[in-house]
Amino acid sequence: MKKIEGTPYAELKIQTSNIWVDLLSSLPLIVVGLFLVLISANTTLICQRIETKQGNCKLTESKLWASRSQEISLDDLQGGKVVQKRKGSSQVVVLTKTGEIPLGNATRWGDKNPIANQINSFVKHTDIKSLNVSQDDRWFGWIFGGIFVLSGVLKYVWQREKLYL
């Protein structure tokens, strides 16, 4: 280090940084954030009843990049229930003659009993002509994913900017 005369600083410190090291140190935050955004889904069950046991249901899971649908005949639909999962999370499942179909992700937040009750009410009461229930988990992934992406970008910008201060 060389002392520079005539400046208020006793020494001039030159910092160097590799752009790839800065990028790689920020990349995990950005990747986790994008992953959270991409796996976030809105799951919807829509049923239409034509007659007592005639009609169909469509279970749709919509994510940012894709949508997946499954048809369920009204004759196969048996109801809905809330299943307790590990670590205090719960999940709504649609009961059919062939088994259980998950309605959305297992989460720890929100009361899921009203959704299961709506499905059960639709199955029991044949005078109800339609059902539309959904579980929207996108807010969690988008908020926390956005925080992670923003943190990663800011970390990278701060590391690059401090070289020029």
Polypeptide structure, described:
This protein starts with 18 loop residues before the first helix and ends with a helix. With 165 residues, it is α+β, with helices and mostly antiparallel strands. The mean pLDDT is 83. Helix content is 35%, strand content 34%. A 4-stranded antiparallel beta sheet has the order 3-2-1-7, covered by helices on one side. It has a 3-stranded antiparallel beta sheet with strand order 4-5-6, with helices on one face. Helix 1 packs antiparallel against helix 3.
State the share of residues found in helices, binned by percent. Answer: 25-40%
* Largest sheet composition: 4 strands, antiparallel
Strand portion, in percent? 25-35%
Number of strands: 7
Rg measurement, Å: 26 Å
**Alpha-carbon distance between the two ends:** 18 Å
Strand order of the largest sheet: 3-2-1-7
- The ordered string of helix (H) and strand (E) elements is HEEEEEEHEH
Q: Quick check: average pLDDT? A: 83
Derived from helix and strand composition plus strand pairing, the structural class reads alpha+beta
Assign an overall shape.
Answer: elongated
Low-pLDDT stretches are none
What's the tally of helices? 3
